[in-house]
Amino acid sequence: MFDLVVRSRRVVTPEGERPAAVAVRDGRIAALHPYEAPLETAEDVDLRALPLLPGLVDTHVHVNEPGRAHWEGFASATRAAAAGGVTTIVDMPLNSVPPTVTPDALDAKLRAAEGRCHVDTAFWGGAVPGNVEHLRPLHERGVRGFKCFLSPSGVEEFPPLRPDEARRAMTEIAGFGGLLVVHAEDPALLAEPAGPTYREFLESRPGAAERSAVELVIRLAEETGARVHVLHVSSAACLGPLEEARARGVPVTAETCPHYLTLAAEQVPEGDTSYKCCPPIRDGANRDRLWEGLARGVLDCVVSDHSPSTADLKVPDFAAAWGGVASLQLGLPAVWTEASRRGYGLTDVARWMSARPAAIAGIPRKGAVEPGNDADLVAFDPDAANPVDARALHHRNPVTPYHGRTLRGAVLTTWLRGRPADGEPHGVFLLGDK
């Protein structure tokens, strides 16, 4: 007897799409049976030709609570995640106050999130100047790794690491087998924008700044033996150093984001700072090279870097506006719109947005439709027209660069451990081996 059976002629598994009946018991995938198999179950859902995907794992989400919950919060962010087919998020340690750089700050975060999460939620700790002594205790408390900046973060309470401080943190993290995730831009190659336009903002944060910082991260990883993950790669100039490091056996992985794969600098409307993020959205030729890097596996995964703010901080001046793209609910249709146009399939998207993020963050039982995994499932219509109205999205403030666009594909139902994720929150904290 099963609690739930979801049937589809297009179940997206790590081996590809196949007809199957996904049988769920006690929140886990108990078995994959033939599509038409008669099964005893409390609920039987037949999607017919509509695909069934694994729940997405978004390892780069700024929830901002406690302290800046007027920007975003656990209730609104995780509701948006569930509506977008995301069943697991990993919360970033900054933009909340206090930032998650001590065990006490992690406790404050857990208290703020308790009972409010519509999806399962894990946490990154932070590596900042002077908190090396807190890294191991945070690791033992179950954070997935440690976020650091090599350039200013934009908030005073989360300062960047100098190269010597990064080396010290990486040496400590290597000692307990942890992971450092890095915002990689070289501050020596950044400048203040010369004016308010997007072109001037883009020129102030060149691809060379990303490449230089990535090269530093790789050198420090080789020196210390620490595992490192490069966040939100926007510049294709980073692909060469990453590929060469992998060939030498350096333990480095990297991600990119939907906005770098689907938007382009030449399309940014002047004054529309919903497009502003750091590092910035670059030109269409660079976007094409990012897709090539993703296809070759130089870039491992695609995650949102959902970094919202209140609308008043998005002033129509690219030099002064808050930088961050809000897209947590839209990542799947945004990526699918472009991926399908380029000839990629849902198996590719599931690998980039489910399996690889789960593996990099070390989250077990997530990321694939396989027996033994949590029954995190997404019914997805890949051909549905999906017009975006920012006011209808679940994240707290109605700001997104996708407003007014029509994307391809729509999430119909999201199941979290076998239960629909559109009702009362029943997400759990994923700490340690959970």
From TrEMBL:
GO terms for molecular function: allantoinase activity; cobalt ion binding; zinc ion binding. Pathway: Nitrogen metabolism; (S)-allantoin degradation; allantoate from (S)-allantoin: step 1/1. Its EC number is 3.5.2.5. One of its GO terms (biological process) is allantoin catabolic process. Keywords: Hydrolase, Metal-binding, Purine metabolism, Zinc. The keyword Aminoacyl-tRNA synthetase does not apply. One of its GO terms (cellular component) is cytoplasm. Pfam families: Amidohydro_1. It is an enzyme of class 3 (hydrolase). Signal peptide: none annotated. Its cofactor is Zn(2+). It comes from the Bacteria. Residues 52-419 form the Amidohydrolase-related domain. Homotetramer. NCBIfam families: allantoinase. This is allantoinase. The lineage of its organism: Bacteria, Bacillati, Actinomycetota, Actinomycetes, Streptosporangiales.
